[in-house]
Write a structure and sequence with these properties.
By secondary structure, this protein is of the alpha+beta class. The protein is built from 13 helices and nine strands.
Length: about 350
């Protein structure tokens, strides 16, 4: 299982969960942060414990019911993430609803990738979207787009749909120091410590831009937390980006980049529909797959017990990816508030 569980187990006692929440609420500038942490610490620790049990059970479960277990495990991790930002959750019964919907009765010629999921104005997902800056949400999300928005799934989706992959894998290299030919004459580039070099391939879309236009494109979509002033661009045989290694994880907060383990991806799709953060895409997809488990048993049985549907590969690939990576996705989110508290 994901190594993030080792850190989450640290939160499965009342003293550690209370201390962690108190630190989060103090960082957010909330009054009476110790009292708020005390009120939520028991709920907080049981969320992590129950989430871990759901995932352990899902690991041994048959594919026919695995999405249902993973959906509730995912929901518990997201509730734990939410409590690091919102000490009053749940404020009312409305935020306990899923906050998304899909057609319960599918058409006879049902195609999974053509289905859609619609966020609602109230509920759990809407509350998460508000707290973590996802507004405004689209009215609906196509399943194929959600699969494609996950870097690890992008190539598989492209092969099955005969379309270009929207995420491009990038080559990056750690440098002990910048070459003198790069730093000479530029004091800002003489900082101590390791650097990172990222090479961008030639291609269509944004990858076809000139280095200057591409640099402006990256900066235009950056957030305040990304130190773009320390970026240095070189255009030799192709575009190359140099920046201090400490900024690598900050780069992941950029909507055009994803860092998964040692793999770095760049979004080369349209900026009109930037990908959702992975925690949001995973929640929406697991919601739909869990609904299929419960209400479309004939179609779901055909998918899981036979090999007549190509979507089976996408479903299995996604569930494996979710199981292996989602706790780390959540860990990265809560680290943005409290980066030094949990043991890793």
């Amino acid at each position: 299982m994901d190594n993030a569980w080792k850190a989450f187990r640290f939160l499965e006692t009342e003293p550690t969960s209370r201390k962690f929440l108190s630190s989060c609420y103090e960082t957010l500038g909330l009054e009476h942060y110790d009292r708020l942490a005390f009120q939520q610490s028991t709920r907080f620790l049981y969320l992590w414990r129950q989430a871990r049990q759901y995932y352990l059970t899902a690991e041994a479960a048959d594919l026919s019911i695995r999405p249902l277990l993973l959906f509730y495990g995912c929901s518990h991790l997201l509730k734990g993430m939410l409590l690091t930002r919102d000490p009053s959750y749940p404020q009312n019964s409305r935020v306990l609803q899923h906050g998304v919907t899909t057609r319960k009765l599918k058409r006879s010629a049902y195609v999974l990738t053509e289905d859609e999921i619609r966020p609602q104005k109230e509920g759990f997902f809407a509350h998460l979207a508000h707290l973590f800056g996802l507004s405004p949400l689209q009215d609906r999300y196509l399943v194929n787009d959600l699969f494609s928005s996950i870097p690890a799934m992008s190539q598989s989706c492209a092969l099955l749909s005969d379309t270009p992959a929207l995420w491009q894998r990038l080559q990056w290299t750690a440098l002990s120091a910048l070459p003198p030919s790069v730093s000479e004459g530029n004091e800002a580039l003489k900082a101590d410590g390791p650097w990172v070099s990222i090479s961008f391939p030639e291609g269509e879309g944004a990858l076809a831009y000139s280095t200057e236009t591409f640099s402006q494109y990256i900066r235009r979509l950056s957030t305040a937390s990304i130190p773009t002033q320390q970026f240095h661009w070189r255009d030799r045989k192709g575009k190359e980006l140099l920046f201090p290694q400490f900024a690598l994880y900050a780069l992941e907060q950029h909507p055009l980049f994803r860092l998964q383990g040692q793999k770095l991806y760049f979004w080369n799709g349209s900026t009109d529909s930037l990908p959702l953060p992975e925690w949001a895409s995973h929640y929406l997809l697991l919601y739909l797959l869990s609904m299929l488990c419960r209400y479309e048993t004939e179609w779901w049985g055909e998918l899981t017990l036979s090999y007549g549907l190509a979507e089976r590969y996408l479903v299995e690939h996604f569930l494996e990816h979710h199981f292996e990576t989602f706790p780390t996705v959540i860990m990265k989110q809560i680290y943005q508030i409290n980066p030094h508290f949990l043991p890793m």
